[in-house]
Amino acid sequence: MNVEKIMADLEAKHPGESEYLQAVREVLESIEEVYNQHPERIFTFRVTWIDDKGEVQTNLGYRVQFNSAIGPYKGGLRFHKAVTPSMLKFLGFEQTFKNALTTLPMGGGKGGSDFDPVGKSDAEIMRFCQAFMLELRHNIGPDQDVPAGDVGVGGREIGFLNGMYQKLARQYHTGVLTGKGMTWGGSILRPEATGFGALYFTQHVLHTAGKDIKDKKIALSGFGNVAWGAATKAVELGAKVVAISGPDGVCEIPDGITKEMIDYMLDMRASNRNKVEDMATKFPGQAKFTAGKKAWSIPCDIALPCAFQNELSEDDAKELKANGCWCCCEVSNMGCQPGAIHFFQKNGVLFAPGKAVNAGGVATSGLEMTQNAAHLSWSAKEVDEKLHWIMENIHEQCVKFGTQADGSIDYVKGANIAGFMKVAQAMLEQGVI
């Protein structure tokens, strides 16, 4: 069955689910000759909770379990007003191949809710998380499905979710969620892992191209855990982060982000205000805020989308290229629109997809699961060494399957084929089930 026939069937079955269909098409275009359909199942449930005014609120919750051929379902939970089944299906689809790339035994899944944490109090977020877990608990477990955090779900939310699970299960399953606090089963470096791993992968991309990250200007989007980790490691490696952005606009930081500013990113995330302007207010003279603009409007060498899917358009790609950008590595899931990816690839801009670049986060979640199963905790040095090895291995797989006849590397094709082949082989070897 060819790509267009598969896509026609999927579009008929899932009309309007644009993100999911976009993710599927990208993979199918890379692996048309060896495509094999992957079934998914979706649990949909109502989440009823009480706000601080005593009024009853209702949201929808979801868990998509996509593929468990190589391990338990594994993927984050996303709390955002824009969450839809289509979004979670594309994320679960991507997660399946990303997890396969890590070399760890993890299947693919995703979940979340259209609950909007912006402006909510800690007490409201706690009550929502508890109500969400009341329903989710039936379909998760340390050897069944292991959720983690994602957009809108950080350490605070994982804590509330885990506490409710323990109460309901009446068993101490440390491995049922990842991204836990350090005092109750979490792994050192897990909060930083997605950003750290992304920079390690970016380093490999640059070194393969004969370049170095030191002194390069980086623009990144977002200011949550992922962007914070990316900024932290970028500065450690000698790069200069000159822009961060949010829904309200962009903060340009001409002299490069400082440690104090990176630390403040955590306060910005915890405030639930979702305004990057707070950085300029906190550090006047160092950061300049421009409303309505993206990070991609600031001249840079390397662009790192760290916020949301489809956040970088073809027009953004053209603006980046015109301003001297020569590398873009997706740190968010499917951060670039198809037009942007095609423009980068056709115009000599190094490009690597999120399923490879940001796999360090879920890889370290896998390491957290291993530590939980063995009832031990590794040092930061041990975790970082394993993360380095995993990201290097992912890069090698991308190079193996993505090297073209002219010697160039198509990282999109390489990542898609490498991840797909591992999942497909596992499914074939286990028979028709």
Describe this structure in words.
The two termini are 21 Å apart. The chain has 433 residues and is α/β, with parallel strands linked by helices. 46% of the residues lie in helices and 15% in strands. Helix 4 (122-136) crosses helix 5 (155-169). Residues 33-38 have low confidence and may be disordered.
Topology (SSEs and partners):
Elements: H1 3-13, H2 18-30, E1 41-50, E2 56-67, E3 73-79, H3 85-101, E4 108-113, H4 122-136, E5 145-148, H5 155-169, H6 190-208, E6 217-220, H7 225-236, E7 240-246, E8 249-252, H8 259-270, H9 277-282, E9 288-291, E10 302-304, H10 314-322, E11 327-329, H11 338-346, E12 350-352, H12 354-357, H13 359-374, H14 380-402, H15 411-429
Parallel strand pairs: 3-4, 3-5, 6-7, 6-10, 10-11, 11-12
Antiparallel strand pairs: 1-2, 2-4, 7-8, 8-9
Helix pairs in contact: 1-2, 2-3, 2-15, 3-15, 4-5, 6-7, 6-13, 6-14, 7-8, 10-11, 13-14, 14-15
Bulk shape:
globular
Secondary structure tally, helices = 15
Largest sheet: 7 strands, mixed
Kindly state the percentage of residues in helix.
40-55%
Radius of gyration: 20 Å
What structural category do the secondary elements indicate?
Answer: alpha/beta
- Strand portion: 15-25%
Number of E-state strands: 12
Q: What are the low-pLDDT stretches, counting only 5+ consecutive residues below 50?
A: 33-38
Spatial arrangement of strands, main beta sheet: 9-8-7-6-10-11-12
Mean pLDDT: 92
Order of helices and strands: HHEEEHEHEHHEHEEHHEEHEHEHHHH
| N/C terminus separation | 21 Å
